[in-house]
Amino acid sequence: MPLDKPKNAFSLPALPYAENALEPVVSANTISFHYGKHHAAYVNKLNELIVGTPYDGMSLEEIVTKSAKSDKDKAIFNNAAQAWNHEFYWHSMAPKGGEPAGKIKDALESSFGGVKEFKEAFVKAAVGQFGSGWAWLVKGADGKLKITTTANADTPIAHGETPLFTADVWEHAYYLDFQNRRPDHVTAWLDKLANWSFAEKNLG
Ligand SMILES: [Fe+2]
């Protein structure tokens, strides 16, 4: 008997670049597991979980923000938030990330005192996130940029903040390339892959 399908099934969104485009910082091997297995599993599980619930038919963002308020829908929240976080994460990286310039550079300078200061604080936060989670550059309600971390599937969009970009610090994001060296991974990620034009677009 075929499994029930939701009316509004989510599909795995396309990667914005080739699987080997982020090498050597993130290898094609890492992407093939991270995108093709982990991200895909969150999307598939979400589709299973929303069948017959009021969440079927909502946008992914709506599912995240609504299920965040309900303890009984924790599994739906975890899979929806991980689906949302991963799609946002792929766009948070660019094959030629470069250095921040223009409006985003000005915002980093006024919020953190400089690009170097921002990078040091971001690496420190990402390394200090105990266990699995995410490091984020966000715009708070007061318009100031901030660095936050979230554990497991948690996401700033469940807390009224506007994310500009994110680094996945679950081990599945870097273990094949950096093993336990999370600080080296995050430093290389910021220097080589951080997508500043995506961050600037999200700044609004
Ligand atoms: Fe991940």
General description of the model:
By secondary structure, the protein is mainly alpha-helical. 48% of the residues lie in helices and 10% in strands. It is built from eight helices and three strands. A three-stranded antiparallel β-sheet has the order 2-1-3. It is globular. Bound molecules: fe (ii) ion. Residues 34, 38, 86, 168, 170, 172-173 line the site of fe (ii) ion. Fe (ii) ion binds at residues 34, 38, 86, 168, 170, 172-173.
Strand residue content: 5-15%
User: Which stretches are poorly predicted, pLDDT < 50 over at least 5 residues?
Assistant: none
Name the shape in a single word: globular
Q: Which small compounds were modeled alongside the protein?
A: fe (ii) ion
**Structure class:** mainly alpha
Strand order of the largest sheet: 2-1-3
Biggest β-sheet description? 3 strands, antiparallel
Rg over CA atoms, rounded to whole Å, is: 17 Å
Number of helices: 8
Overall pLDDT level: 95
Q: Give the terminus-to-terminus CA distance.
A: 48 Å
